[in-house]
Every structure is written in structure tokens, then in C-alpha cells.
Amino acid sequence: MTFLNPLVLFGLITAAIPVILHLLNLRKLRTIEFSTLTFLKELQQTKIRRLKLRQILLLIIRTLLVIFIVLAFSRPALRGTILGSLGSQAHSTIVFILDDSFSMTGNDEHGEYFKQAKETADKLIDLLKEGDEAFLIKLSDVPQATIDPATHDFAALRTIFHESQISAIRRPLEDAIGLSAKLLQQSKNANKEVYIISDLQQTLLSQRSVGIPENNPSLFDDHSHFFFVPIGVKEIANVSIDSIYITTTILEKDKPISVIASIGNFGITPLNNYIISAYIDGIKMAQKNLAIEPWGYAKTEFSISSKRTGFIRGYLELENDAIELDNRRYFTFYIPEQINIAVIANAEMDKRLLLFALRSGETKSGQSLLNIQQYTLQKFPFIDLNKTDVLVLSNIPSFSSTDANRIKNFIEEGGGIVLFPGDNISIENYNSNLLPALKIPPIDYSPTASVQADNLSFQKIDLAHPLFSTVFEQDRSAKEQTGIESPNIIKSIKRHAGKQSRVIISLSDGTPFLSEYNIGEGKFLFFSSAPLLSWSDFPLKGIFAPLIYRSMIFVSSTEEKNNSYITGDSPAITLRKSLAGNMNRQFSITSPEGIEELIHPANSIVNERATTKPMIFTPSRLTNSGFYEVKQNSSMISLIGVNTDRLESDTRKISQIDLLNEMKRYGISAGKIHFSKPGESLQSEILQSRFGVELWQYCIGLALILAIIEMLIARDSRKATKDSL
Fold this sequence. Notes:
The chain is of the alpha/beta class and 725 residues long.
């Protein structure tokens, strides 16, 4: 027996009240002298004993009356099926947790897993009786699920199960269990049961939900029981694309782009000559054969290219297998059609050689990736930075605090900056205004150290940096590449790069010649020598033009490259900075199925002339894998690749021991957890775990009977007392 309201049992203390009253009513007899004993002789001993017996009986009845009233409010219940049909009198609150992840598309000799799950749900619904209530939680709906009130319409619940579809969204079981706890805490029914219908992969419990504390005994009460209903008797052999990485940073039309993929084999059979193909804009670009060990991974690299600019769609695809939804993985990248460069220099000589290098990429017809505009420092306040991708600063004498703050905002919001020193720069001004604003270490104040008199040369070149990818032949060794001809550096500013930088080229005195800083969303390249022959012969070397040209592409905005998310995400999408100032805007996102949703910026937009932060959008959940298009009016401004969660591809099943240990985190003891086995009657197992009947009705009935008996005996006792007197 158990009690559904055990705290009421403290009321049993009141059962002592009749006893106390009985003791208080006992009075010590006084001796009264009679002139004759005739009256006493008339009293018979039997009547006296009968009177005392009635008093003791009344004491017992009144005490039992109080006890049964207290027990009725404490709601006693009996467990098990001993009571037969009486078991149906205890109402139940049922929570169904349905695993609708894409691993449930697997098959065995009994058919598709998800179809088996629906058939199992039918059998469980058959157990529901009038007065029971039920909830349905699909794993794909949590944690954002808005659960409807408990349903008593079991026919409608059955229909919802039948109409459920496989989802591309994966969620860990922890989220659903936490939601179940909230639902059951509101229930007053005797039976509280959670049915988990799933293929029970190991990865089902691979993540920790932030909202659920560990070892919390208060999540579920003693009346809650959990039934794990495993679907599928064997592990399914599955192959999936685990991840994709685009390693090329500088993306250009008709230039090679490196894509590295990791492929997992979740099966006991080794794979040989397993085919994987690469597609760009729906066209197959390459194909490779893989060998993958059982339960192992293999990496492969594709070199692809695009014949156009703009937003590019790409995906890798495997052969068909038991689970198809993870056989294709999407990626996107953005090849700019034009990069807007603002070259700021006060004198022609400070930019002449730079312009030669920047124009080296022009075609015979004069077309170029770089759109170059030239300004003096006096015109800098009037440059529309929203339409500028890169600022090239050459021999700028000084910066006002306003200029420094504007440059800081520009780079933090995704812009790129390339800085060259010169003969006219004020080291003190740089160290007090520009460099502190960007959190870059200062230039050495020492006049003898800031301008080096002895000739220097390149000491070390970071050839792994994206600036040098595809510049050198792939078959040349690193030793040969580092032997490139070094310029003769006559003058350079002496500085320390700092811990937050990456030194791309260092000089023979250990100081940096070229260093990179990531500031906010943007990039900053800092040269230590001016592009002047009076400083070095660097502009005459073969590396000068490609390095300068590629520097512009590198520091320009790359926020659209490989813009990838996982199904179920509600991402914050950042709009390209160059579009941020457009006031005539209507934004939408279109799903792979062609469903369009209007979206609005989550952050405020200031006036067009100010440097504007990128607009951020938070659309609803990305429910399917594929490409999502973000549009402004009818123009696409961003492309998102959405993929399934790689953890769902691992089909290995969790053991009962591991599952029991995991459930302890929620205060669920092993005695409250039941595992359904193939061939056993699930209904019988559930009935054996339930409370057979609640006894409060019987307690009330007995209390009423005792009250009537007490009234009859008390009246008869008073009459007998009068007769005795």
C-alpha cells in the first residue's frame, strides 16, 4: 500500500482526542452514606459491566472514525493486479515520448522502425480508460515544444500518432524527460507513466541539457514509472558524411577551392570502393572511392571550382544505404563579384606602386574583381563605409580620435584594413589614437629603433597562411618555398606583433614585417615597411603584386562562406554589412520546400550615413536539410546550408545498464524503470506496475458506518445510564 497524499497522515495525531476526552470524563467516586442499603442492592453487577463496555466500545469507534477520515484524505492505494477489475478505478496520467528522428527510417524483418513505433503506440493507447489523461511529446519538438493540455480523446490521440512523420531534427532524450517532469508534477492521478518509444541509440543520451540538474530527486515523485519500448532488435549498418570543411579562405571564380570531408562507417563490415561525389550548383564536379574500416572514419579532399560569382550551392553525396537522410551534406560559399577598395593616401607616390599591384588582376577588357576608389585623408569622413569592403591606408600622418573610432567600428562590423607606414607618420599619434582603439601593440618610440638603418631581409614566411595558398606550385617542398627571394629592407618601423596577432612574415631582426589581427568581424593587415623604393625593393619583387592583390580579397568580408547550421537550430543570421544601410527593405527566408517566411531585423538600425552594425535576423527553426535563401525583396542576400545532426547517424544501441545509470540524474530509481522485451506482453507488464485501486472511497464509507454506529450506541448508552440512576 502507498499513500498519494502522505503528509495528511500527520493528522492521525487527532485520533488521540477521543482517548483524552474519555480519560478526562472519568471521575473519582465519592462515598455517600445512606440510611439504608436497599437502593444499592437493587443495582445489578451486570448492568454496571454493560455500561463500561459501551463506553470502551464508543472510545474505539470514535478513534477509528477519526483514523478513517484522515486515511481518506491521505488517499491510500494498493498496487498490482490482485484486485482484478478494481485496478481500472485508479486513474492514470500518461506521457508518450515518440522518437521521430531520421534513424527511425531503418528497417528490420518487422518493417520500418517508425511504422513499428506507431503500431506499438496503438497497443499502449488501448490501455487508456475513461478518466485517464495523456500527453504526446515528439523528440523533434523539444525544447521549443508548446504542449497542449492533456487529452482525454484517445481516438484523436491515435490519429496524431498515425499522421506523425519522420523529422530531420535530432534532440536528446534529456529535453523530453525534463518536459515530462513538468507535466507529471501537475497531475493528481495515482498512476503516472512515461512511455519512451525509440530505437534507443547511444547518442540519444549523449548531450546534457542545461535546464536539468544532476542527481535531483525532486524531478519525479514515487508514483512515476518509466517504460522503455525499444524499436528494432538489431543495429543498422549506416554510412554518413560526418562533416565538411572548406579550407580555402580566398575564394575566386575559376580558382581551386579545397573541400575536406569526413565519412563514418557505422557497421561491422569494412567498406571498399565506397563512392562519394561532389556537386556544385547541381553539377557533379568530382567523384572518389573510399575505404572505411568498421566503426571507423575516412577523410577525403576534393578540389572544386565555380565558374560564376555570388552565392554558390554545394553538396557531397554518398551511395544509398539503410538511412538516406544523412547521405547528403550541404555547404555554401560566396565568391564576390566585386570588392570595393578605398585607397587613402595624401600623396601620389604613397599609392602609385600599390595601384599597380591592385590592377594586376584586370582582364584585357579592363574588368577587375577590385573596384578601386582613391581618397585623401581629408575626404575620409565623407566615404560611405557601408559600401566599402577594404580600406587601404598608406602613409597617413595622423588620425583624429573621431577617425580612429570610425575605423574601429568599420573593422569590428566586418570591414578589412591594410595599413602601410611612411615617412610622414606620427608614431606618437598612432600610439595614442589608432592602435589603442584597435588594441594593437604600439610602435617603438625610440627614433633609432623605429626606423632601421641596417638592411633587413625576410627571416620566416608562414606559407600555411591563406595569402600564400595556390600561389606556389603544390609539388614544391616547403624548404624550396621558403627560399624565395627576399627583398632588401632599408627602413621599417620596429614593433611587437602582440599575443593576439599572427605573424605572416618576420624580419631578420625578429620583428614582424606583416602581421594579421582579427578585430570583431573584420581583419587587419599591418605592414612594417612602406610601398616605396626608398624603404625597400619589395615592390620590385615577384611576390609583391600577388601578395597585395590577395590581401584585398583576404580582408574583405567572408561572412557568407560556409554559412552552415544544423536542423532544429534557430540561428542568428547576420546581413552583409554593405546592405545594412538600405532603408527600403523587406526580408524573407525561403526553405528548401519553397515555403517563404517574412523576417525582421532583431537589432535596431540607425541612420544611413552612420557606420551601421550588420542587421541580425532570427527566423523560426530550420526544420529540414537543404538550402535556405535569405532575400531582400526579390534579391538573395544570403544562402544557408542546413544539415542533419551527425550524432543521429550513429546507430549503436545503448545498454540497459548505461541507461539506468543515466536516469539516476533525474532521481529515477531502477525499480521505477521497466524495459519491454520482444515477444512479451507490454500491456501485462504495465498493468502489473500500476496501483490496483485507490481506497479513499472505502475509508469514507467505513467512517460513515462508524458514525452511525456511534450515534446508536451513544443514544442507547445515555438511556441505560438514566435507567440505572
